[in-house]
Amino acid sequence: MYDQQNIARCYMEQNMIFGSTGSMAHACRGPIGLWSAAGSAVSAILTGLIYLFVCVKAWAGAFGIGSITQYVGALTALTKNISTLVHAVGILRANTLYLKIAYQFLDIPNRMYQGSLTTEKRSDRQYKVEFRDVSFRYPGSSTWALRHVNVKFRVGRRLAVVGENGSGKTTFIKLLCRLYDPQEGSILLNGIDIRKYNYRDYMGLFAVVFQDFQLLAQPLGANVAGAQDYDRARAEKALTDAGFGERLAAMPAGLDTMLYKEFAGDGVDVSGGEAQKIAIARALYKDAPFIILDEPTAALDPIAEAEIYAKFNDIAGDKTAVYISHRLSSCKFCDEIAVFDHGQVVQRGAHEQLLADEAGKYAQLWHAQAQYYTAPAEK
Ligand code: ADP
Q: How far is ligand 1, taken at its centre, from the CA of residue 330, in Å?
């Protein structure tokens, strides 16, 4: 149809890895073939020599017929295994070429400075974070993504970071989580520059759901815990708290249900909304003192997003929660709102207070977006 046979043929040829012109045949002529041939040759020569030795010994009367059968059996097994071993070495050598790329990637050193201070695991969760005159631009970029940002967080409270797209909200979170270090200024945790803390330790303080979170084609529970061995009761609770409880009950194998079909024919495909709930459950499972939602709900409509944020607010308990959104309605319940504009914090305060400043950015954005904020009942 539509003269597509040439395209189809080309596609078939590329994908027939075991065909005579496929990639396996190509590889066999190369290293794998060589090692395979070497394996067979070693095996054939060894077998020949050993048979000759046994026959000569038997002929000379060194042992009887029963022993010959026993020796032949043992020798056949030995040569077969030697051949398999040599063949395996060949495959190993050929595959190391591919592994090399993976290891080169894993071996990239972390050039970030890191100190040795440990973040105390405080049961009272009394952490204080401060951005002190922080400026940052992405590597290779000439424009500042953040400029002279001064923000203090009060622990256990809800901070909202709002602003238009591109105003620097995500960058702010990336710096807070130390995915990058600022070029100017410093970020302090309990009065100490975050660079002085042990990196892993510091990362342990944050559970973040980014906009572009990824779920893996792995069992549901492993996705939530980020590990193969995990606390099942905790994973179930996290999923239930994230609003995934009913769907979990309907999953064919509960927490062991494979997500997606890449590695399991009976894997379950989840919808965008369900995936978000799993991502949120993942953050809850981590049980970190800071929990950050960076618009993981961007694909939802404003009212649905506001509902998820409000519900999340109940779940977050005594944690410090940071909500990011370009939709002001989602965050109006927060104790404190920081308004970002062109990489700067232009306003801070509670919703009512910010809205009262008619000339401010917040009021301007609020009125521009107000049409989306009327719940269906009010329309
Ligand atoms: P927001 O989260 O408010 O939408 P971002 O923090 O993602 O905004 O972006 C702030 C600014 O930084 C934007 O001008 C954006 O183009 C720029 N930026 C974001 N990510 C990168 C990057 N990886 N490399 C270069 N510039 C970036």
A: 21
List ligand 1's pocket residues with C-beta within 6 A. 138, 141, 145, 163, 165-171
CB-neighbour burial class of residue 353 (10 A; exposed 0-12, middle 13-18, buried 19+) = middle
- Residue 160 maps to a domain: yes
What strands lie across the sheet with 184-189, from one edge to the other? 146-153, 129-136, 184-189, 192-193
Q: Quote the percentage of the chain above a pLDDT of 90.
A: 31
pLDDT digits (tens, 9 = 90+) for 304-325: 777 777 777 777 777 888 888 8
Choice from 165, 171, 331 to test ligand 1 binding pocket (greatest atom count within 8 A of CB): 171
Model confidence pLDDT, tens digit, residues 79-116: 888 888 888 887 888 788 888 888 999 999 878 887 88
Q: Say whether both 253 and 364 belong to one domain.
A: yes
How many angstroms separate the alpha carbon of residue 90 from the centre of ligand 1?
47
> pTM score, two decimals?
0.71
Distance 48 CA to ligand 1 centre (A): 70
Q: What's the pLDDT tens digit per position in 238-279?
A: 999 888 888 999 998 899 999 998 888 888 999 888 898 899
Q: Are residues 196 and 306 in the same domain?
A: yes
- Whole-number Å distance, alpha carbon 171 to ligand 1 midpoint, is 6
Q: Which of 170, 175, 212 to mutate to test the pocket of ligand 1 (most atoms within 8 A of CB)?
A: 170
Cβ-contact 347, 153 below 8 angstroms = no
User: What pairing do the DSSP bridges indicate for beta strands 192-193 and 184-189?
Assistant: antiparallel
Are 60 and 206 in a shared domain?
A: no
pLDDT at 20: 56
